[in-house]
Amino acid sequence: MSSKSEITLEKIRSVVVNTLPGPVAGETLFGPGGALDSLGLVSYLADLEIRIGEEFGRELVLASEQAMSRSRSPFRTVTALTEYINELLAQ
Amino acid sequence: MTTKRVILITGTSRGIGHTMAEYFLARGDVVCGCSRAPATIQHADYSHFELDVSDEAGVVKMVRAVERQHHRIDVMLNNAGIASMNHALLSTAATARTIFATNFLGTFLFCREAAKIMVRQKSGRIVNFATVATPLRLEGESLYAASKAAVESFTQVLARELGPTGITVNAVGPTPVPTDLIKNVPKEKMDALLARQAIRRFGSTEDVINAVEFFISPRSSFITGQTLYLGGVNG
Lengths: 91, 235
Fold this sequence. Notes:
The complex is a heterodimer of chains A (91) and B (235).
Chain A: H1 9-18, H2 38-56, H3 65-68, H4 78-90
Helix pairs in contact in A: 1-4
Chain B: E1 6-10, H1 15-26, E2 30-35, E3 46-50, H2 56-70, E4 75-78, H3 93-121, E5 124-129, H4 142-161, E6 167-173, H5 187-195, H6 205-216, E7 227-229
Parallel strand pairs in B: 1-2, 1-4, 2-3, 4-5, 5-6, 6-7
């Protein structure tokens, strides 16, 4: 398990990518041209919350008020999700 | 990793939740329970979490702790509930918030978190707790009946959302069972309520467990989104 100071964007991105159910051709996770459909996203985020707990020792709820109130979904791309998780872990 | 069924039950310090926990433990299941009060059950296969079911962080922490320990959740029983008997015009906003927080928000949070684990394992049974007070439109129980109507509606929609995942979501609607929940209800009110049931007696915890067992049976994989009222009450 990584301590707070050891958490890097690279590590988070690695968890984000490695938790995906399969290889993703591009950056897009959800939305037009995305790798995941609605149920796929639900399942993926559930997996990801558990993996974040295992890797970083934090119990995050990714579908939070913060995520839902944004004009651009943090779930749309690998990069957006990585940066969003980084924000949550920094809090 | 245990091969026993892992069952989460809310509101296990007393009443129906306590009896259900003891029942499933006696059946050889692992039970993880919670209440605002300390544990009232001592058993090798029982673990207790002190929390308020409407506290999101507490619920998340509990469900993930159970997942870490047992690696799955087979059954989620959303039993925790509170009642308030009063005329709507004499009820306070604070009472409304408290009742909806425990009865609806608590059910929602545990459904959401348990279903995340169940989606991963592609199986699971969720049973929520409704009440005959909703279909009987009981005077004096407007807030309680409304909060449980929300639970029923949520159960039906969640059943559809989780339909493709192998998870079933149902609700049992007990009649009054002699527990602390109804101890302050006047006898004449209770008698009037029982008179509206097809079978005019109090329910027992065994009656409730029987309905729960039906929903969580492996043979009930094609039954979801249903509310089963006891005592011959129709929705």
